Amino acid sequence: MGVCMNLSVQLAPKNKRSLVLENPVMTASGTFGYGTEYEHLFNIQNLGGIVCKGTTLEPRQGNPQPRIAETPCGILNAIGLQNIGVKALVQEKAPIWATWQTPVIVNIAGNSVEEYEQIARILEEAPGIHGIEVNISCPNVSAGCMEFGSDPASAFRVTAAVRKATSLPVWVKLTPNTADIVSIALAVAEAGADAIVLINTLKGMAIDIKTRRPILGNITGGLSGPAIKPVALRMVFEVAGVIKDIPLIGSGGIMTTRDAIEFFLAGATAVQIGTANLINPRAPIEILAGIKEFLQNEGLSDIKELIGTAREQL
Ligand SMILES: Cc1cc2nc3c(=O)[nH]c(=O)nc-3n(C[C@H](O)[C@H](O)[C@H](O)COP(=O)(O)O)c2cc1C
Q: Is 135 in the pocket of ligand 1 (CB under 6 A)?
C-alpha cells in the first residue's frame, strides 16, 4: 500500500531523443501483431512498450504452411516475415500509434544493408514510432545467406547503416545462432546501437514420423518458449559482463514473473514477452503485476535495484 515504486527504464540513454518506458515489460516482435489487434482484450496502454511485427521494405506473404510446430517445451515457427511492408505501416498503423501512451518500436528486417537503411529512413519521418529494433537474424543475401547476426563484421555493418539513416533510438536484436555472442554484442555496441535485445529464436526442426517429412513448410524454424530460457539468460549474463554503457533487453522463454526477475538479475534492464502471448495475451500485464508484488515483498522501490545483481554475489 502507498509505497512509491519506480518501474520506469531508459532504453536509449545515449540518444538525444531517448526512450523511456513507464515499466520494463514489452511484447516481443511477431507475437503481438501491430498491437491494434489486442486493444479490445485489455488496456494495452499499461504495457511498457509494444514491439510490432517484423517489417520489410515490400509487403511479404511469408512461408508456406505449416508455419508453427509445437515441441515439448516450446514452439518452432517459420512465419517468413509475413507483413504489410513499411509504406503501409507508416500510412495505416503509425497514425493510430501516435494517439497511444505506450511507445511502439518497429522491428525491421532486410536482405541487404541497403534494405535496412531504406526502411530506417522511411520510419524516421513517421509519427507514432519511438524506436527501431533491428532484427539481424535475417539471411544476408550477398554473403551467401548467412545470418547478418552470426558474424561481428556484418552485424557491425548493418547496425552502423541503420544508425546513420535515423535519429530514432536503435535497438539491435541478436540471434543466438552464433559461436560467440559477446563479440557480436561488442560489434553492434561499437556501431552505435542504443540498446541490445537478447535473444531471437534458436534454429531447429521437427519431423513427422508418419509422413517421414519435416513438419514445417520451410523445413527449419525458430525455437522459442521455455526451452530457450536458459540459453537466453546465459547470453544476457555474459553480455552484461562486458557491456555496461547501454541497456540490455531480455527475450527468450519468459513465461512468468519469476522468469522476468531472473533476466533482471542477469543484467537486463527490460524484458520482452513472446510465446507466452500466444497462450495468454494478458501474460505481459500479469507478469508486470507480479514484478510490482516482488519488489514490494523484497522492500525495493526501484526496478533498477535488481538489475545485474546476480553478478555482485560472485
Ligand atoms: C510466431 C513468432 C513470430 C516471430 N516474429 C518475429 C519477427 O518478426 N521479428 C523478430 O525479431 N522476432 C520474431 N520472433 C521472435 C520473438 O520476438 C522472440 O524474440 C522469441 O520468440 C523469443 O522469445 P519467447 O521465447 O518469449 O517467444 C517471433 C516469434 C514467434 C514465436
A: yes
Q: CA dihedral in degrees (281, 51, 290, 20; nearest 10)?
A: -150
Cα angle value 84/56/43 (rounded, 5°): 55
Cα(61)–Cα(305) distance, rounded to whole angstroms? 44
Active site residue 73: no
Residue 87, pLDDT score? 98
CA torsion through residues 25, 28, 34, 39, sign: negative
CA 305 to chain centre: 23
Active-site residue, selected from the candidate residues 4, 73, 138, 145: 138
Task: Determine contact, residues 187/148, Cβ cutoff 8 Å.
Answer: no
- SS3 at position 193: coil
Going by alpha carbons, the residue nearest to atom 26 of ligand 1 is 274
Q: What is the mean pLDDT of residues 212-222?
A: 96
Residue 264 phi/psi, 5-degree rounding, is -60, -45
Set of cell numbers at residue 132: 527501431
For the question of whether the overall pTM of this predicted structure is more than 0.90, the answer is yes
Note the residue count of the chain. Answer: 314
**Cell triple for residue 227?**
526451452
